[in-house]
Amino acid sequence: MFRYIRQIVGISYLQMVWIKRQPTWIMQGLISAIGFTMLLYVWGSLDALRNLVIAYIITGAWGIGLNIVAQTIGWDRINHDIEFYVASPVTLSVYFLGTVVGSSPFLVSSIIPSIVVALIFRMSLFPIIVLLPLSFIALLLGAFLSLSIILRIEKRTNISAITNPLYTLTITLPPIYYPLYVLPYPLRWIALIIPSVPIMELARWMTGYASIGCNPMYSIISVVVWLIATLYIVAKKFKWGLK
Q1: C-alpha Rg value of the chain to the nearest Å
Q2: 238 with 151: CB under 8 angstroms?
Q3: DSSP state for residue 66 in the 8-state scheme
Q4: pLDDT tens, 68-90?
Q5: What letter would DSSP give residue 152?
Q6: Residue 85: in which H helix or E strand, if any?
């Protein structure tokens, strides 16, 4: 067990080198989060801020998986850097977990604003702790969804061209920063097809910070189906070895 932990830590350190060289990426995310909080505070309401506390954690984890983890693996594959790991005793699961841990510092720019807003408006911090397992699921599903597309790309420059619009389509447009219940019933069912929406609905339900727009069981079913489908697609395409 200690051997695998050491391998994960080693890979995460290698993946974290560029973050150490360019820490302004984390500061950029932190400043954006603070600015968006001020915007909702001035124009919105306490309910909007409660929803924002949840959204920061879920979207932060989702973005790490969909953008950073998936892009890192995609670039390693296209640049043939992944062959270095394949030739080592490292397994695919260790490589993936190391990449996730190495990308985790970006989640700081989402968690800190959530905690600050919760403290200022005297919200309980316990629901935020409850969200951590769900945020990990959001990270995994975001990574699997992105990798199911990225692993079919052969040009390095096309990776960001896929992940960035995909993040916009799954976070900005659907009911993430606004509640699902504002949509009419037919559109609610359509929105639940977007994988980020049922995760956010489950976050609202688990914390009680915001009202939900559908039965939580429907959200659970949608998340499970997406996890199974994307994992199958990625496992079929992502072969760990020299063949």
Answers
A1: 18
A2: yes
A3: I
A4: 888 888 888 888 888 888 888 88
A5: T
A6: helix 82-86
